[in-house]
Design a protein that fits this description.
Elements (H helix, E strand, L loop, with lengths): L1 H7 L2 H23 L5 H18 L3 H28 L8 E4 L5 E3 L4
Antiparallel strand pairs: 1-2
Helix pairs in contact: 2-3, 3-4
């Protein structure tokens, strides 16, 4: 049912729908600039309608372009998410106040 609706839409309607998805992509790129890994998820999500458009209207150039973009966005999402985890401080970060003379850690539960 959903596919029939997408196929039945005019190309003009599709182009306006794609403009909306590009606004999502721009928001995602803004988040990437703010170093948020999930910005890549928005960019990836906005690339999927372009792939559907290329299939519905038989545009092989758009299909190739979409697959390249989707591959790039998936790769960036994976790498940025992995980097985000690596940059996380350990769970005790900020809780250790001092090391006592005998070598034991003194934790601050108030932080």
């Amino acid at each position: 049912m959903g596919t029939a609706i997408l196929i039945g839409m005019s190309e003009n309607t599709w182009t306006w729908m794609l403009v909306g998805f590009e606004l999502i992509a721009i928001s995602g790129l803004w988040l990437v600039g703010a170093r948020k890994w999930w910005g890549w998820a928005l960019v990836l999500a906005s690339s999927l309608p372009w792939f559907a458009y290329s299939i519905v209207f038989d545009k092989p150039g758009f299909t190739a372009m979409s697959l390249i973009y989707i591959t790039t966005h998936v790769s960036n999402l994976y790498r940025w998410k992995r980097m985000d985890r690596a940059d996380q401080p350990p769970a005790t970060a900020g809780m250790i106040d001092t090391v006592s003379p005998d070598g034991t850690l003194v934790l601050s539960p108030s932080r």
